[in-house]
Design goal:
Helix content: 10-25%
Structural class: alpha/beta
Largest sheet: 14 strands, parallel
Number of strands: 41
CATH class of the largest domain: Mainly Beta
Number of domains: 2
Shape: elongated
Radius of gyration: 31 Å
């Protein structure tokens, strides 16, 4: 890690977002916008300062990272004024200072590293990340001299007709010599129509003092797409998701249609797993190898093992699915569930805070809430674990190798022992001992008699 101080400007409100939420906290690829920026500098920088302003406390609590320092810009008086809030950090630093914005989430670690490395090798007072746009309207233009150094930055509104023809634009991402930056900041003024302090004036100051200012052209210009409104947000989302899908495919994941597959940046997927179209995989989800994720599934903060077959239209949240299980179609698994290996949860089943043991089956049309199901047990179609008494939730336990007949209702709290059985339509209100069959409403122990059966 090089001795780099990074300053991330994240104080603006972002009024064009038309939102109650400050701009840098809008989400992209499963993370807030500014987190993408920070993730790219954590590996480069020993010290990172985030300048906050609008909804500053929300920004700090959302990021909540001990590697970050925060300073507040109480009034938004321009980019130069924002950097001034971090003056004490700059003054104490010996080495380069990287300055970038919290609303440029597509910048890569490689591009930022190249900017800093180029600055170090050049001996320049500052380096600026630039790009060539076919339509540069709205951006500040880069004016170079015969030595290909930057002599000034001209904003769109101040550019002459000839200057507006220049295609090279200023991204707003800079690398400065720390000592020169302090001097430049101390000489900023707000003698302009907006009454603000501009960081571009620091570039003008250094150039006037004879310091070399160099451009570093970004190789992929989509990296410097800034987020100003919801349209930009959607464009950036598409880029981030394309990158995520391509990275996964390079690691051996089959994504049948990347254009219709939505995977968050924190998701991990093992090789030879197949992801079908129209699938959403979000949060801290981990999927093993050789699994199949069918179409129209939504998976959020789920641990999925190897050789899992997840059929179409499953919605799974904050749960654990172990190896070699079969899930779905049309399954809703709510938070707090664990499906053991080789188990089956079939169509139109809902689970909530439930454990399904190894090789057990809940094949179809059942609700299993606040329940523990042992190994090798079968839950018949239409079974309901009635876990709510109108005031409180209660838990039911079904043991190993049990058989729960179709349309059984288990009224919690109740326990069915190992190898216990219920007849179809039974309403179980009392514990069922091991190796016992119960039938009826309410369910009673069944015993055999000559020529038929009777109950106690």
């Amino acid at each position: 890690m090089i001795d780099l101080l990074t300053i991330v400007l994240a104080a603006g409100q972002g009024t064009r977002m038309k939102s109650d939420l400050t701009k840098v906290l809008h989400r992209l690829g499963g993370k807030v916008m500014v987190q993408h920026v920070l993730d790219n500098v954590f590996c480069l920088s020993k010290q990172i300062v985030v300048v906050v302003g609008h909804q500053g406390e929300e920004v700090k609590s959302t990021l909540d990272d001990e590697r970050l320092e925060f300073v507040e810009q109480k009034e938004q008086l321009g980019t130069g004024h924002a950097v001034l809030q971090a003056r004490e950090f700059i003054e104490d630093h010996q080495g380069p200072v990287l300055i970038l914005y919290g609303d440029i989430p597509l910048l890569t670690e490689q591009t930022l590293k190249r900017l800093v490395t180029t600055w170090e090798r050049s001996g320049a007072g500052a380096a600026i990340l630039t790009a060539f746009f076919d339509n540069p309207h709205g951006y500040g233009r880069i004016i170079r001299n015969n030595q290909e150094q930057i002599i000034r930055i001209v904003e769109e509104k101040d550019a002459s007709k000839e200057e507006k023809q220049i295609r090279e634009i200023n991204s707003g991402v800079y690398c400065f010599n720390s000592k020169l930056l302090v001097k430049a900041l101390d000489n900023l003024d707000n003698n302009n129509a907006q009454g603000e302090y501009y960081l571009t004036d620091a570039i003008s100051y250094l150039q006037a003092k004879g310091e070399k200012i160099i451009p570093v052209v970004v190789e992929d210009k989509e990296e410097i797409l800034g987020i100003n409104d919801r349209i930009n947000l959607a464009r950036a989302e598409k880029v981030i998701r394309r990158r995520i899908n391509e990275d996964l495919m390079k690691e051996g994941v089959t994504i049948i249609d990347p254009e219709t597959t939505y995977i968050d940046s924190r998701v991990e997927i093992g090789h030879d797993t197949v992801i079908y179209p129209f699938t959403f995989i979000e949060g801290n989800t981990r999927i093993g190898s050789h699994s199949i994720i069918g179409p129209y599934c939504r998976i959020v903060d789920v641990q999925i093992g190897n050789n899992v077959n997840l059929r179409a239209n499953c919605h799974i949240i904050e749960s654990i699915i172990e190896d070699e299980t079969n899930i779905g179609p049309f399954v809703y698994i709510r938070p707090g569930c664990r499906i053991a290996r080789e188990a089956k949860v079939g169509d139109f089943v809902e689970l909530k805070k439930a454990t399904v043991g190894r090789k057990s089956k809940v094949p179809h049309l059942s609700y299993v809430g606040d329940a523990e199901i042992g190994e090798g047990t079968n839950i018949g179609a239409g079974t309901i674990f009635a876990n709510y008494d109108g005031k409180h939730k209660h838990k039911s336990i079904v043991g190993n190798s049990a058989f729960i007949g179709s349309n059984t209702t288990l009224v919690a709290p109740v326990k069915v022992g190992d190898r216990g059985r219920t007849g179809a339509g039974a309403v179980v209100t009392r514990d069922v001992p091991e190796d016992v069959t119960v039938i009826g409403v309410p369910a009673r122990i069944m015993k055999k008699k000559e020529g038929g059966i009777e109950d106690n």
